[in-house]
């Protein structure tokens, strides 16, 4: 997963970075306009039909939906309102309420007209920025601000207005580079001065591949290169990607999670679910038209081969014994697809070694593709020794980044992956070592496979009560309301000790199902941000909307509800004890997304309480607040949370050197205090838990939220007397069984 995610992140960063030009590009030199394939009109017609028939709203694609789609499309091209000008938007407005009519007739030309104008406007910006960088020496003593958050601002009315916006934008980027380098040098000089002589000698003798660094460019050249790469990304879209942008805007007019996927994008979606791909094991980015290897994945084919290094560039790709195809200045996604392929097949890479920046030296290296497990998105776990209140506790900890499952394989297949199976293995180990409690960390987990949420929840729940299945989540679709119960043929109640679930504002969908049912049944305490993300909808992927080349549609077909009847949509799952993260006050969450479906509720399903752990929330909160009151590390964490909030809430930054430097120093010091705090446990006041060093992938030693969660778990174990969950659930009503079938 790391390779794909990092490549995607680099593309997004390039697209949002400041737009600088290496060479002048007048409007006449803009890329040639694209045109739709003849069958795109049929695809659009089929997509509209599927949305109207399948989407949970059952709403026709009418003028109102057309206006939403129009807004989505314009924002997808120019989110910061800096590329188009006001007359351009007025020109586009003629289609605002007519997209529905156009698509029903099979006309998809509007997006290609918008795309063409977008490229022409970018060509103008290229010319402006290039001249600005070549002719201007910025004066950072001038006290002026740059408005970086422009989503709600109007588009510039004239080219002169637009030029002024871009002047400040370029100046802001230049100042950021200059000051970051200055602060980097200060920190490096300080570290070098503090380094002992044996450490210096060891560092000098090391000289391994990890010491490779790109040559540092001047700030101006850095910006020029950054924009050159940005232009490559910007002009990469072919007619298929432009069409996908249009259809995604149409689908997301219904809700933010419905979407259109081309065959290539569907392949990436499937990899997200299965955590594996077949390739060569490298993280790639665009660099001067070539694919640069920015990281070699441990254990992958390139890592095992040893002939290709980080920093090398791929300029050609060949399949088996076939010819080498030049990939210079070709769309990145298409080049990467050529590198991927069936397990055991041969791919030949034409490489420019990092040692030859001129690009004159080239070598061809054959690599046998192999399956690469993207384990950074897989569950990890460990046993943690925690000392609190004079007692040493053994606690289990599992970090689950996503709900993954290989749907095309059976559990007896060695390559089968399932997050619930992986977590079950850790739970078995925790039972074997007689752990006194467990933390399930769902922070940052955006969801995934719905069945896995049910399988995972059942590890901590009774399989049934009085012969009837216990519900995990309620699903409402056109057929009505139904319950997804714990599956009787799966292992249930695998762990019976006290449980804490860690969540934040990025915990969504399947994470909220698990957190919700464990909270509503009293089986776990929820600790973290004030609430989770708030995604309470289920999507179905319609793989065949026509021939294979038509792609797939992901449609929101149902809503899910907690067993107490409340939807997690918009509101999410509230924490029993609030330990805020950096995400606490940021503009994230379902309620911040355009066209999000509203919160609703149903009658709910009366359900037995498996335990009463949330009854201890009040007492645990008081103990936690008293413990954290004078904790300097936690105080620094809260200060940084506030700094993140203030920076995000502000729409402007200063372009005056002294003011900006002071702000950046404060940000760096706060991050350093948070990320690299080296205070020993004895430095903390009170009886705090001694959390072992070296948290590994699951968390760092200075993760103050996780540290306090262990502390709360220790308090919970003490308050419950170290008991297990009771043998018999508490059911005070029989209404559930009469609603969903079965006899009490």
* Total of DSSP H or I helical runs spanning 4+ residues: 21
Main sheet, how many strands, which sense, barrel?
6 strands, antiparallel
Query: Which strand-content bin applies to the residues?
Result: 15-25%
User: What's the architecture of the largest domain, going by CATH?
Assistant: Alpha-Beta Complex
> How many DSSP E strands?
23
Q: Structural class, from helix and strand content? A: alpha+beta
Domains, number = 4
**How many angstroms does the end-to-end distance come to?**
46 Å
Residue windows where pLDDT falls under 50 for at least 5 positions: 1-29, 677-701, 732-744
Question: How would you portray this structure in words?
Answer:
With 744 residues, the chain is an alpha+beta fold. It folds into 4 domains: 2-254, no CATH class; 276-373, PDZ domain (Pdz3 Domain); 383-628 and 697-738, Alpha-Beta Complex (2-enoyl-CoA Hydratase, Chain A, domain 1), CATH 3.90.226; 632-683. It is 39% helix and 16% strand. The chain has 21 helices and 23 strands. The strands form 6 sheets. Strands 4, 5, 6, 7, 8 and 9 form a 6-stranded antiparallel β-sheet that branches. A 6-stranded mixed β-sheet has the order 11-12-13-18-19-22, with helices on both faces. Strands 2, 16, 17, 20 and 21 form a 5-stranded antiparallel β-sheet that branches. Helix 3 packs across helix 10 (239-251), helix 14 runs parallel beside helix 15 and helix 17 packs across helix 20. The longest helix has 36 residues, at 159-194. Mean pLDDT is 83; it is low at 1-29, 677-701 and 732-744.
